[in-house]
Amino acid sequence: MAVAIEQLVRQLWRRRSDLDEWIVVEQDAKRYRRDVGGREARSHAERRGVTIHGFHDSERGRGSASVTVPDSDFDIGATVTELVAGSRASAGPLWKLPPPAAPARVEVGDAAVTAGPDQVIDAIADQLGGAAPAGLAVARASIFADVITRRAVTSHGFDSRYTATRVTIDAVLVGASGAEQPVSLSVGRAADLDLAKAMERAGRLAVMGSEASPVPSGTYDLVLPPQAMGMQGGGILAPFIAQADGTLVRQGLSRYRVGQPVFADAGGKHISLSSDGTTPYAEMTAPFGELGEPVRRFDLIVNGVAAGVSYSLREAALARVTPNGGTRTLVLATGDASPNSLLVPSDGRAVLQAHDIAWVDADPASGQLTVGVGLASLIDASGPRPVSGAICIGNAFTWLARATLSSERAAWGRYLGPSHIRIGSVHVVGEDPAPDGQSVKITGSLR
Amino acid sequence: MAGSSPAWLPLLGCGGGQSPTARSGQASAGRGIGDIDSLRDVLRQSVADLRRRFADAYGWASLGRITELGVDEDEQTVATATSHSVTLAVWAEGGWRELRSSDASVANVRQLAARLDSLAAGATKPSEPAAAPSLVGSEPAPAIDPRQLDMRKWLERTAELFERARALGTSRVVYRRASLTVEDADELFIGHGRDYAQRCLRSRAVAGFVVFDGTHLVDESAVRAGAIGLEALDIGEEDLSRAASSAMARLTTRIAPGGAHWMLLDPSVAAALIRHAVVGAGAVRSDGEARSALSVTDDPTQSGAFGGYRFDDEGWPARPTRVIEAGNQVGRLTDRELAERLGIARTGNGRRGAPDEPARPWPSHLVVEPGSANGGEMMNELGSGFLIESAIDGAIDQAGDRLAIRARRAREVVKGRTTGRSYGPVVVAGSARAMLAAVRAVGSEARPSSWRERHGSGSIAVSASSPALITSAHLAGGG
């Protein structure tokens, strides 16, 4: 791998009359997988590639092109020629690479996983069978160990590399009735894998699922768990990530104006959100970003006011600011309310406490969103009872502006913040009869 | 053509945060991709050699490239990702042992074979797979083959689309963009008595319009996609004009009245409903009590389909599979693992998000059987309710049956005519099974839709051909 990149860099220097600046990013990703229960299988996959970003300046501005090739078996000369052709054909605003900055000092690679991924996987597989909660058994599971090495080299002299690891379990538990309960967990360091906690949660959800009845449509006070914010893409925080993007802000297409309120009617003064790409072994942590830019902590919102923007290398150069590597782990400031106080019905509305989020579908531009709640507790004057199938509809910006945040903190995926977030008066679609009094009756079974 | 715009923001090259794992090395397409003939020869040899020691063996390979071009007022960009992948697998020690690599050189294939050869063969054999059907369907026949055209020409043609878009809409349109994504790959599968090759060519062109009133960002796109070449950029004037007008019209809408209603879903919304319901059909089956007007087939063999192919990513020949019959979910899309686990037939729907990832069952090209009613007749059939237009996106609970589709607009309809009141954005939500079972009319004019769905570390191309539908569901204003 190192030989190829050195040869490539030499070729790029030779072509400096054609390319004013360049960035080379090399990635070696290895995935080790073992499937247990049912049909046993093992696989090793490796993906090695080099992405070259080339920039050519002319009277038309800066032309940008990128070419990604496999790390081996590629014609360096032809690849660079293709890159030159692409950058000469394209055009955009003029900008320059900033001076190289030191990568963040963060822990992302677990030595145990790097040294012996198959051994780590086998150790987990050995624990799995005995970890299932009472009444459930592990029907099947896939265990993954990922080892990813990245190196970035720029024409300005930046040259750095890191190795990150990830251990993931996707399992399915099955009960005596045949009902299935999925369990998923993913950590950067094998020692942080808390199988017992994940299994305990799965057991609780399995019991709830067996007792749950369909939720009636109505207006509820919704209490969201960390899962709703930590899902891939950012969950209900996805619109905030998108609106803070440097490209949108530069083009005037974002509701973000640094120094101005993010929420309508200057609400949401209790909302402070920041990005932190330096939490050890977290999902989004990295020493440097996609183009070698440093990853830094920065504020997105402070007391309801836009405070910072996510700057890639290019957008930072255009804005003449320091790049920050983009939004990473989202840290939401906690509030004052105890978690229990957020579960008390008020103003004649029941509380819907979500325990398992099926999906969050959020429109990054408008904030419109739907949240599918697999399992929840419906808490009213008569106490809590398990319900299923709630579809919550609203807008991420209006929700957060009126949310009440717990004082306790929890983490999930790329989220660190209040363990409970209560949003008043949320429209929930439950399972109701069809219009015109017609009853659309469908029976079905969960396989 | 309707296509749910992913977030518009990725078209701007932003949005959604940045992951520490770069997007490099993803899927496929392009010119001069690689020496497929040498790769085929070494795969054949390797699989034959491995079969002498092991009960079974196979090889799968992809040499491809994805090229993305974007043109807006300020800039033109080009990004090309070449991705090669080879998988060799043997049945050893009671299960499949697979090695996957992005290095598809002859030397590396031999090294992978040598690593597998060092495993203990074991005494057990895999269960005999059912005999595979023969390969059907035809190779893509693009009018403008990307492999024959210089990159400068690609950019020129994309810029032409941008110029056409720029001429449309008023000053309220604050941003326009034209983009083209071409995925072009040569794929091989050797094993189980099969020796297949196919070219997978998919092109998707988008012309987008953004209207911004200082608070709300409203976008609409005109899309053309298929197993076609650069002719994807020839989006019709009517489609472009419709997208520009729709973006501007949406600023005047209001929040929809909630509740259960009968709705006429335009082809894009109908396609989004079908696509998510079929994905959800992986978990939930109906018991055949429904008698609706809706029948849907997953058909990867349809010529020109964006989500189509001749054999899936596990080397199983593609075939049409009936998934919905009279409103009942009847078919189950499978890959090898799911078919074996459930003891049902393989349908050739094993699909990978990235060439180096394992396959999972996923739809390909969904075809809704058209009805006989034209647009006016559908409005009369609806009577009173809402016309739902321009799907944005949706989601389904894969463990259950709950579904929500977001759309840009709903128009009130009374006695078969629009009243002039419109609402947006809106959400159509409820039980997927109930919505499918309640379909009481299907239009006669199908329109294509296409998506690139995030899947693992990559994406999967899916498409649909659907006319408008009338069904009942819960309508809510998205705010």
Explain this structure.
The complex is a heterodimer of chains A (447) and B (479). In chain A, strand 14 and strand 15 form a beta hairpin. Chain A has 447 residues and is α+β, with helices and mostly antiparallel strands. The model of chain A is unreliable at 434-447 (pLDDT under 50). The longest helix of chain A has 17 residues, at 195-211. In chain A, 21% of the residues lie in helices and 38% in strands. In chain A, the strands form three sheets. Chain A has a six-stranded antiparallel β-sheet. Chain A is built from ten helices and 20 strands. By secondary structure, chain B is of the alpha+beta class. Chain B has eight helices and 22 strands. In chain B, the strands form four sheets. Chain B has a six-stranded antiparallel β-sheet. A six-stranded mixed β-sheet of chain B has the order 11-10-9-14-21-20. A five-stranded mixed barrel of chain B has the order 7-15-16-18-22. In chain B, a hairpin with an 8-residue loop joins strand 12 and strand 13. In chain B, helix 1 (36-53) runs parallel beside helix 2. Chain B is globular and about 75 Å long. Residues 1-32 of chain B have low confidence and may be disordered. At the A-B interface, strand 1, strand 2, strand 3, helix 2 and strand 4 of A face strand 2, strand 3, helix 3, strand 6 and strand 7 of B. Strand 20 (444-446) of chain A pairs antiparallel with strand 8 (284-286) of chain B, so a sheet runs across the interface.
Condensed summary:
By secondary structure, chain A is α+β, with helices and mostly antiparallel strands. Helix content of chain A is 21%, strand content 38%. Chain B has a six-stranded antiparallel β-sheet with strand order 3-2-1-4-5-6. In chain B, strands 11-10-9-14-21-20 form a six-stranded mixed β-sheet.
